[in-house]
Amino acid sequence: MIILGLESSCDETACAIVKDGREVLCNVVSSQIKIHEKFGGVVPEVAAREHLNSINIVVKEAYEKANISPNEIDAFSSTVGPGLVGCLLVGLNAAKTLSLVYDKPYLGANHLNAHVSANFINSDLKPPFICLLVSGGHTQIISVEDYDKQTILAQTIDDAVGEVYDKVARLCSIPYPGGILLDKMAHDGSKDAFNFPQAKVKEDEFSFSGLKTAVLREVKKFKPDELPKADIAASFQYCIADTLIKKTKYFADKLGYKTIVLAGGVAANSELRKRLKELEEKGYKTQAPELKYCTDNAAMVASCAYFNPIKTDNSLMLEVFSRG
Ligand code: KG4
Ligand code: ZN
């Protein structure tokens, strides 16, 4: 089954064509980073307008790259939510229109499930497994019992990990998008330079607002041009990865899972990937999506539409949603 997926939930306009949920025939991503850079973050109205400008272009490019005609597509899909409503509407209406024009089903995808599905791309991974989902808006440990059966075991009670990365980057005057730059900077610093706190929370919770405040307190002790950015980045990054990996392993052991996977934009983080890999020495099977499938993309949407579409009697009636 060949599915065309569209992603437009935030600041990436993307179209991909994926066969049987695992084989990517093309993956086109048009990033708006340059546009939002000057604002220091995503401006929803600007993003929605940019999606409108780019959506037809990425679809056309996808057909060309996959060397496929629209008639060969078996279903059209898009991210339905969570995300920015005005942005989601662009992808949803484009995919529904394509489905009506070519008389093929429309399949809706949940953005979070799509991030999990990124792990099925170019891999033979099968449930059950434990997934640590870390993105700009979410931080969750999920028990993936089956392709369409997922239970949230723990989640953040305040900031998401990606959000904290971006905020700490801003504190250190590192430009948007801060996460990836902070990750790079951490390689030149010492994880022991600062002893940042790990929140004491309930078993099913994460909390990162205290860590953010602790970083702010340290930053304020320095003159801007004397700020030891690399040391702050390394100590912060170590603290985050340690918190996340420990709790994920805890739940894997509690539920008896032997496979642990990462998902979401922060799954691209080098320290997190390193710490995950180290679990293999303890007998776990681990996996993280290829870097290009960690941050928002449409291949994961098409994969999700294949394995775990939003269940509904009439998918053409699906409406976008901002939170989930
Ligand atoms: O999944 P994603 O592309 O969008 C959301 O669904 O939110 O995740 C974006 C987030 C941003 O906060 C970005 O700073 C973070 O992922 N991110 C990273 C890295 N690459 C992207 N955070 C830490 N290290 C990275 N290498
Ligand atoms: Zn995302």
Key terms:
single chain, 324 residues, alpha/beta, Nucleotidyltransferase, domain 5, five-stranded mixed β-sheet, 21% strand, globular, binds 5'-O-[(R)-(carboxyoxy)(hydroxy)phosphoryl]adenosine, binds zinc ion
Question: Can you walk through the features of this model?
Answer:
This protein has two domains: 2-119 and 294-317, ATPase, nucleotide binding domain (Nucleotidyltransferase, domain 5, 2-Layer Sandwich), CATH 3.30.420.40; 127-289, 2-Layer Sandwich (Nucleotidyltransferase, domain 5). It is 40% helix and 21% strand. It is an alpha/beta fold and 324 residues long. A six-stranded mixed sheet has the order 9-8-7-6-10-11, sandwiched between helices. The protein has a five-stranded mixed sheet with strand order 3-2-1-4-5, with helices on both faces. The mean pLDDT is 97. The site of zinc ion (ZN) has 6 residues, from helix 4.
What is the first-to-last residue Cα distance? 28 Å
> Mind telling me the C-alpha Rg?
20 Å
CATH class of the largest domain: Alpha Beta
Q: Uncertain segments of ≥5 residues (pLDDT<50)?
A: none
How would the global form be characterised? Answer: globular
The CATH architecture of the largest domain is 2-Layer Sandwich
Give the strand content: 15-25%
| Domain unit count | 2
The number of distinct helices, counting runs of at least 4 residues, comes to: 10
CATH homologous superfamily placement of the largest domain: ATPase, nucleotide binding domain
Mean pLDDT: 97
Strand order of the largest sheet: 9-8-7-6-10-11
Structural class assignment: alpha/beta
Q: Would you tell me which CATH topology of the largest domain applies?
A: Nucleotidyltransferase, domain 5
Could you estimate the helical fraction of the residues in percent? 40-55%
* Sheet having the most strands: 6 strands, mixed
Q: What is the H-and-E element order?
A: EEEHHEHEHEEEHHEHHEHEH
What's the quaternary structure here?
single chain
